[in-house]
Design brief:
By secondary structure, the chain is α/β, with parallel strands linked by helices. Helices cover 51% and strands 10% of the residues. The strands form four sheets. A four-stranded antiparallel beta sheet has the order 1-2-4-3. A four-stranded parallel beta sheet has the order 6-5-10-11, sandwiched between helices.
């Protein structure tokens, strides 16, 4: 379904052509003076320079060629602006098409294309902490947006499951329980199905081993050896690794589920490891690699670089590979398995140089096709009210599970105090409001910017917050339930300015989603639904919806707020949360 701006631009271009001017001058934009008009065209000013005549003369000629039935206002004003307001007929017809079309007629610009969204990125055997929040929230929203726009969207968690932390855990476990069969090279199996540790014990083992590595050179050597032997396939170490994976993935899944974040693929560095030798050999065969201080690197600096871009290290001087190697091998795997048109990465913005190196190396080595798009969305930091990275009261890194629990408890106290739902509904309502508060509080900020985590502000029921959006939806649901069957009511001519403002706001859905997709900015969706919710509430306060005596007018009101509610619910789904039935 064509966007309104495209429709009226096409009509304006035709009017310029009919008036004898280049149709390219007919570009229409949303007005920057909404008090004067809804849309405007400034093409007559540019045309005047080319045609050597007064712009107002051109503007008047063009206005005379437009179909006046499409506009309630169409005028040429000095020095040569063309101001437009859509007619009620035009707007009603457009909205009626929106409400009957699939997904509101939003164009599926990604039809036939595949995108892999790389987000999450946690290391196994470590608890998820608040540093994992933004990648999960932003990544899930973008994945849902791409899917809504027609793409086959594959979310990949990209687990850190193959590095030194595995060797550290194995070495520490061997010190604590050397009698375990996993450490007996003569043991032929089968190995136990139950792990010799719980997830809580595992989360204690790793930091203890990590600290010991810094003080005990012999222990550090054993950990490195264990890592190497694990990667070479030692059976006992592989069995321990499988226990670690099973416990860690189960724990991560529980927390990600509570965030309504889901991955289509649970692959990790271990899955990419088999691709590394052939990939590096191919780079060598192509003459792309060089030795630098004992390390194998691929130079990626390009002529015209305004800052230094160091070579991408493939193999360190000690023979081990690093994150860049794994990321490149992961691309090899993704191109083989999915052949995506785009790969999108979500990480802290401090990793921007890393991804610049990796992307250049991938293109230079031919790992991805020339037309494959690679994008890194580097996000800012979630800070406390002191402007510094968010910490626990004790000064440590807060576990993600604890942050969710704190937000839920904070919202629950409000729900119970205000008695907004029955006792049986408290848990479900609380969970939905808390998730909306957390996600909207994050996503309403531009991804690249740092932001202040403020629980009081995020959970407020007024202002630009998730709970305010939910409250608007629930309010409309209440009105619709009192009216009865409404889904098939037609959109009707607006009978006041608040109705028309709401109609115009609804029509911005398609352009907003396209802009959010193009810039990888879910905050644009947040800004849109805040505007839309504001129009809904103004309309509600200024219009006697259910008390309207004229049944046709009432039905038109109901159809309009029903459509607005559906659009709001669509958008919050894209942001990753949902509305309760009552608030």
């Amino acid at each position: 379904m064509e966007k309104i701006l495209d429709i009226i631009t096409s009509k304006m271009e035709q009017a310029f052509a009919d008036a004898g001017y280049d149709p390219a001058f007919g570009r229409v934009t949303v007005s920057n003076r909404p008090d004067l008009c809804e849309y405007q065209c400034n093409g007559a000013l540019a045309a005047a320079k080319q045609c050597k005549c007064a712009p107002i003369q051109i503007a008047k000629a063009v206005v005379g060629k437009l179909d006046a039935g499409d506009y309630s206002l169409v005028e040429a004003v000095m020095p040569g602006f063309i101001n437009l307001k859509l007619s009620d007929r035009f707007l009603v017809e457009y909205l009626q098409q929106m409400r009957t079309a699939e997904d509101f007629g939003v164009e599926k610009i990604g039809a036939g294309k595949t995108i892999v969204v790389d987000y999450g990125g946690p290391n196994v055997a470590k608890p998820l902490h608040i540093g994992h929040l933004r990648s999960a929230i932003i990544g899930e929203s973008l994945k849902r947006l791409y899917r809504f726009m027609g793409y086959q969207a594959i979310g990949d968690i990209h687990l850190g499951d193959w590095g030194l932390q595995m060797g550290l855990i194995i070495a520490e476990l061997q010190e604590r329980q050397p009698e375990l069969c996993y450490f007996d090279k003569d043991f032929t199996g089968p190995y136990p199905t139950e792990a010799p540790f719980t997830i809580s014990q595992l989360e204690e083992i790793y930091p203890a081993a990590s600290a010991k590595k810094k003080e005990d050179e012999d222990f550090a050597h054993r950990a490195h050896t264990a890592t190497f032997e694990l990667q070479q396939g030692r059976p006992g170490y592989r069995a321990i690794w499988q226990h670690i994976m099973k416990l860690s993935v189960a724990d991560m899944t529980k927390i990600y589920d509570s965030l309504d974040v889901h991955f289509e693929s649970w692959l990790g560095e271990s899955d990419a490891d088999p691709f590394i030798p052939a990939m590096i050999q191919d780079m060598k065969d192509k003459g792309l690699t060089v030795m630098s201080d004992g390390a194998l690197v691929i130079p990626v600096a390009e002529e015209g670089d305004k800052k230094e871009v160091p070579p991408c290290i493939l193999v360190k001087s000690d023979g081990s590979s690093i994150y860049a190697t794994t990321d490149l091998a992961t691309m090899v795997q993704r191109m083989r398995d999915w052949n995506p048109d785009k790969i999108l990465y979500l990480t802290d913005k401090r990793q921007s140089l890393h991804f610049e190196q990796v992307f250049r190396a991938a293109r230079k080595a031919g790992i991805v096709k020339p037309e494959t798009e690679l994008e890194h969305v580097g996000f800012g930091t979630m800070n406390g009210k002191d402007g510094k990275p968010f910490k626990t009261r004790e000064g440590g890194v807060m576990r993600l599970e604890q942050l969710l629990a704190d937000m839920t408890a904070f919202v629950r106290a409000k729900v119970v105090e205000n008695q907004i739902v029955s006792d049986e509904e408290v848990d479900d309502t609380t969970a939905k409001i808390a998730l909306a508060a957390l996600k909207y509080g994050d996503l309403s900020n531009q991804p690249t910017k740092d932001y202040i985590f403020d629980m009081d502000r995020f959970a407020a029921f007024e202002g630009n917050t998730g709970p305010y959006i939910l409250y608007t939806i629930v309010r409309v649901k209440s009105i619709l339930s009192k009216y009865g069957d409404w889904q098939h009511l037609p959109i009707r001519t607006p009978n006041n300015s608040y109705a028309k403002d709401l109609m115009l706001a609804v029509t911005k859905l398609g352009p907003t989603l396209e802009a959010a997709l193009k810039s990888s900015s879910p905050n644009l969706i947040c800004a849109y639904i805040y505007e839309l919710a504001g129009c809904v509430n103004k309309f509600y306060h200024e219009t006697p919806i259910l008390k309207e005596e004229n049944q046709e007018v009432k039905a038109g009101h109901i159809a309009l707020i029903g459509l607005a509610k559906d659009v709001l619910e669509c958008c919050i789904h894209l942001l990753g949360f949902s509305a309760p039935e009552k608030m």
